[in-house]
């Protein structure tokens, strides 16, 4: 039979995970209100709304149009070769009819050879044009994919911690990989079929009409019937694909949690529970896939039946007309070929429309990232150099996390002078880490200001902030690579001697020496191949290599034993004697010698002074100290 099932519906691929996190305020610059108002919902998104429902088709076409614009050349070539290929495809049945009528039927071998040669040449043109059309179409589509990924990556790099929190790392990864793939896949199909299909349908019909009007009527009658049936099936496919997409989301989530939390699962012997969760999600996906499969099977069978009914009608009418001498056998064969081409074209274009729901969701999610203005932008005329030694002044700072009801920090003051150590202590959840994250401008304050050498952070160039302030985070992160490449994150030009010196100060030289390849020892992603304490010390060394003016240690000594902690602080005291140090710690012994201790309680500063002053006057500090040391030890 002539009808080929080329309009195959898209195969299930991993869909994007869903974005349902609360939206955040776009606080940026000095104009940020003291009490943040409710954030505007980003375009194409909605914390409540289902992104699949809320992203119109326009998203896909606008996005594709925008990204195809720079690739006009391959696009134009695709169109040209598509037209050539389709014309040649339409021409071949006419030539074939001619060959049969005037060559085969007449027994004219010479005609068959001459005409056959020409037909072969047209087929060659058809094949070459088809190949080139696919090549340039894929080239344009891949270029769109590459540009989308590059723009998404660049945009995510501009994001502040607030936007990162809002989208979440897994979602940003899925958007950059899977969602882009959805767009590219649809684009490849669209470039290959959307143009060919209407030309083949209209051209085939025109040629059929020119051959025999009554028989072309069969095709004309069949086309709308097939289109209506396929439309109905596509309508059924859309909700089925949507359900399947949600099921794959579910399975992704279970899988992600399983991989991330494998140690906890093992520790609590929850393997069976996790296995059940996975089995449930898996069964749900299987059911949904079967539902989609049933719709596809029905689609295939129905299309085939209609195609064959059309072919039978053509043969039936054609046979009668051949018998009464009004139609030639070659024309009947040409008719059957046109019927196949026309119905195939209708089905192929339906295949593209079946991909639309998924591409639509993907485009909405991509647009959402691209349209999100980073809350923290570089100032228009940034300060690029500081003249002072690096005096940090936190003044009247209030901060609330996006979506949170209460401010985490209220009216916080803190001064860290060069050559001095300022410690921050407080119960867990009192806001210490948050305060430290505000200093390198990972978030912007809602009220108050943070200045270094009298310059507001919001007036400073981001590169200057990074050069001036060195944060050793609570959970040190190391990149996949070597010890050396991780340390050079602080300064790409640092020599091996510089690295070893930093390691000595950070009390890390001994264990790095003991590693098989020293500085060239490979570190697993996230630093999983070193211990927590080693990771902390490597992170400290990395910051030392950068030589900032202000050091922020966020509980960076917590994984060290007391002796190493003391040795490290002693080494730091001489190594970075001129720098300002802010140390957050839980252990009183770590901070008792600090020049100034700031006591935080529920986001407020409840005391500032030396260990002795606070012990004598501050009940919160007194309580923290006596919970760890005897009064004798404390004094
Ligand atoms: N990204 C975030 N989004 C929303 N709330 C947050 C976020 N990070 C922290 N919080 C909340 O802010 C409060 C202060 O957290 P923070 O980590 O600053 O406390 P901390 O004093 O450093 O605690 P710890 O000593 O346990 O590290 C906590 O109530 C916490 O739940």
UniProtKB/TrEMBL annotation:
Kindly list the places in or outside the cell where this protein is found, as annotated in its UniProt entry.
Cell membrane
**Transcription regulation as UniProt keyword:** no
Q: Which residues form the ABC transmembrane type-1 domain?
A: 76-358
* Annotated SMART domains: AAA (SM00382)
* This protein's UniProt keywords: ATP-binding, Cell membrane, Membrane, Nucleotide-binding, Transmembrane, Transmembrane helix, Transport
Q: Where is this region: Disordered?
A: 1-56
Recorded hits in Pfam families, A to Z, give: ABC_membrane (PF00664), ABC_tran (PF00005)
> Which InterPro entries does the entry link to?
AAA+_ATPase, ABC1_TM_dom, ABC1_TM_sf, ABC_transporter-like_ATP-bd, ABC_transporter-like_CS, P-loop_NTPase, Type_1_exporter
- Mark the transmembrane ranges: 75-92, 112-136, 183-209, 215-234, 297-320, 332-356
> Which top-rank group of organisms is this from?
Bacteria
Taken from the UniProt entry, a GO cellular component term is: plasma membrane
GO terms (molecular function) for this protein are: ABC-type oligopeptide transporter activity; ATP binding; ATP hydrolysis activity
Q: What is the lineage of its organism?
A: Bacteria, Bacillati, Actinomycetota, Actinomycetes, Glycomycetales
Give the source species: Glycomyces harbinensis
Q: How does it sit in the membrane?
A: Multi-pass membrane protein
* PROSITE patterns linked: ABC_TM1F (PS50929), ABC_TRANSPORTER_1 (PS00211), ABC_TRANSPORTER_2 (PS50893)
Q: What is this protein called?
A: ATP-binding cassette, subfamily B
Principal subcellular localization = membrane
**Limits of the ABC transporter domain:** 392-627
* CDD domains referenced in this protein's UniProt entry, alphabetically: ABC_6TM_Tm287_like
Identify the PANTHER family for this entry.
ATP-BINDING CASSETTE SUB-FAMILY B MEMBER 10, MITOCHONDRIAL, ATP-DEPENDENT PERMEASE MDL1, MITOCHONDRIAL
């Amino acid at each position: 039979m002539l009808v080929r099932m080329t309009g195959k519906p898209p195969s299930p691929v991993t869909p994007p995970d869903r974005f349902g996190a609360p939206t955040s305020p776009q606080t940026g610059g000095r104009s940020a209100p003291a009490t943040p108002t409710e954030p505007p919902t980003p375009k194409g998104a909605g914390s409540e709304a289902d992104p699949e429902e809320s992203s119109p088709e326009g998203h896909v076409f606008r996005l594709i149009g925008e990204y195809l614009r720079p690739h006009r050349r391959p696009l134009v070539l695709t169109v040209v070769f598509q037209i050539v290929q389709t014309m040649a495809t339409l021409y071949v049945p006419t030539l074939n009819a001619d060959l049969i009528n005037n060559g085969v039927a007449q027994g004219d071998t010479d005609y068959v050879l001459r005409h056959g040669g020409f037909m072969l040449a047209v087929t060659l043109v058809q094949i070459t044009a088809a190949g080139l059309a696919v090549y340039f179409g894929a080239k344009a589509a891949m270029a769109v994919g590459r540009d989308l990924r590059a723009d998404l990556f660049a945009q995510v790099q501009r994001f502040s911690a607030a936007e990162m929190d809002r989208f979440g790392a897994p979602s940003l990864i899925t958007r950059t990989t899977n969602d882009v793939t959805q767009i590219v896949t649809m684009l490849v199909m669209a470039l290959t079929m959307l143009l060919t299909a209407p030309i083949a349908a209209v051209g085939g019909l025109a040629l059929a009409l020119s051959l025999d009007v009554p028989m072309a009527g069969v095709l004309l009658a069949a086309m709308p019937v097939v289109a209506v049936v396929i439309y109905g099936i596509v309508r059924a496919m859309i909700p089925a694909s949507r359900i399947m997409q949600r099921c794959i989301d579910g399975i992704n989530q279970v899988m992600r949690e399983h991989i991330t939390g494998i140690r906890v699962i093992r520790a609590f012997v929850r393997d069976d529970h996790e296995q059940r969760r996975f089995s449930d999600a898996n069964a749900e996906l299987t059911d949904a896939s079967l539902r989609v499969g049933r719709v596809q099977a029905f689609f295939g069978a129905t299309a085939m039946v209609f195609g064959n009914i059309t072919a039978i009608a053509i043969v039936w009418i054609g046979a009668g007309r051949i018998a009464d001498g009004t139609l030639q056998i070659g024309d009947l064969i040409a008719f059957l070929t046109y019927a196949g081409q026309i119905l195939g074209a209708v089905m192929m274009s339906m295949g593209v429309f079946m991909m639309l729901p998924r591409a639509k969701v993907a485009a909405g999610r991509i647009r959402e990232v691209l349209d999100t203005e980073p809350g923290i932008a570089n100032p228009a005329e940034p300060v690029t150099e500081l003249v002072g030694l690096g005096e940090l002044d936190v003044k009247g700072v209030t901060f609330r996390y996006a979506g949170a009801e209460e401010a985490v920090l209220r009216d916080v003051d803190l001064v860290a002078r060069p050559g001095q150590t300022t410690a921050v202590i407080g119960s867990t959840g009192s806001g210490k880490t948050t305060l430290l994250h505000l200093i390198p401008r990972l978030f912007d304050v809602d009220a108050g200001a943070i200045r270094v050498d009298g310059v507001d952070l919001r007036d400073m160039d981001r590169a200057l902030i990074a050069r001036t302030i060195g944060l050793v985070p609570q959970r040190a992160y190391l990149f996949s690579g070597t010890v050396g490449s991780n340390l050079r994150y602080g300064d790409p030009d640092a020599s091996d001697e510089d690295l070893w010196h930093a390691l000595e100060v950070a009390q890390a030289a001994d264990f790095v020496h003991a590693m098989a390849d020293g500085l060239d020892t490979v570190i697993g992603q996230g630093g999983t191949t070193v211990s927590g304490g080693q990771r902390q010390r490597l992170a400290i060394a990395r910051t030392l290599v950068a030589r900032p003016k202000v050091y922020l240690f966020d509980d960076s000594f917590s994984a060290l034993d007391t002796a190493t902690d003391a040795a490290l602080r002693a080494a730091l005291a001489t190594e970075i004697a001129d720098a300002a140090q802010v140390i957050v710690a839980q252990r009183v012994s770590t901070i008792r010698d600090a020049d100034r201790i700031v006591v935080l309680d529920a986001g407020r500063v409840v005391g500032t002074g030396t260990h002795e002053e606070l012990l004598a006057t501050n009940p919160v500090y007194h309580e923290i100290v006596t919970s760890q040391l005897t009064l004798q030890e404390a004094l």
